[in-house]
Amino acid sequence: MRNPWLALEAGGDPAERAGQVRRAHEAFLAEGAITAPVRGVVADSWRRCAGARVEPEGVARIDLDDHGLADCRAAHPLAGVMPLVRELLGSIADDGAHLLSVCDARGRMLWVEGHPQVLRRAERMNFVPGARWDERTSGTNAPGTALALDHAVQIFAAEHYCRPVQSWTCAAAPVHDPRTGRVLGAVDITGGDHLAAPQSLALVQATARAAEARLAELAPAAPPRTAAYTLDVLGRDEALLHTPYTRATGRPLRLGPRHSEILLLLAAYPDGLTGDRLGHELYGERDVHPVTLRAELSRLRHLLGPLLLSRPYRLRERLATDRDAVGEALDAGDVRAAVAGYPGPVLPRSEAPGVLRLRLLLEQRLRRGVLASGDPALLEGWLCSPWGEGDLEARDRLRSA
User: Fold this and answer.
1) What is the pLDDT of residues 26-68, one digit of tens each?
2) Rounded to whole angstroms, how far apart are CA atoms 332 and 342?
3) Residue ranges making up the domain that contains 175
């Protein structure tokens, strides 16, 4: 079976493939139709880009000036593993044909390194430190798509959504916080069509895993948690459940989207929810048979064992969430800690009414805290985030500050 994350099958002709994809790209821009031989991962990305109204002739925007870039580099966890990344990918960056880059979780390039001649070529498409390369800003590209899907991926030639990037091929892999599983950013190599080989994807994946291992060595011991069970739901579509067993193994349990919604709702209502109420929080006014919910809960019980109780549905022990932690920081008036603990909205792709409400409540509280703080750094960070960009009141407050 073909690996969907690889751009070319073994023995594939790069020139022929590039021509096929270029024609498919033009057809998509003209008619909105996806035709073979576009990979599913690329087709889905093109649709996301079209939905975000990315300009096909556009280039990445610069989000960070020199001062802001220096501050972000100094504060970012990946700064501590850059010597290792350079050690593993340094020959790539020095060979006169490739670039090494590392971005943060928002897709902002913090480091772009390589031969001066290649760097000058890359400047034409704003592939430079401080530029933003998430999909919603710069279209389909390896670091942006790796962040969007939380998976290593190659993007080849005309698979890039924006035409100024289509003369390049890249491979990128996300890097995670080894303690929380949260995405910290991505490592990427960018160059010519020869990077469509399987070795480039394996190389960035190995570098990302090595960086995570080094981060685990550098991290201070995690403070003891007040709850034995914790749930991470911020900035991720599939929640991570931490239990005494998963902490011992160092591997949290990744839940599916529906189970993530159910556990979040039960954590938010510790006294429990009836089947009807839980169904309404999950499905709203949709006509969903009660058997559907019971089947979901039965599968979840196989995962959780005695932690999940019924009549009403509730949890045997307290389940603390990272959403709670942000709320507690806001309660204490520590807006900076709240912002630092907020990597993104609550289960951002969920459309469950109960989750939408919890997401909106926290985002509104955080926004009010940032606006009231008057702190230029917090206001700028809010405006640079996907959930805060376009906030005119915050922009006015920043100007005043």
Assistant:
1) 999 999 888 778 999 999 999 999 999 999 999 999 999 888 8
2) 16
3) 14-218
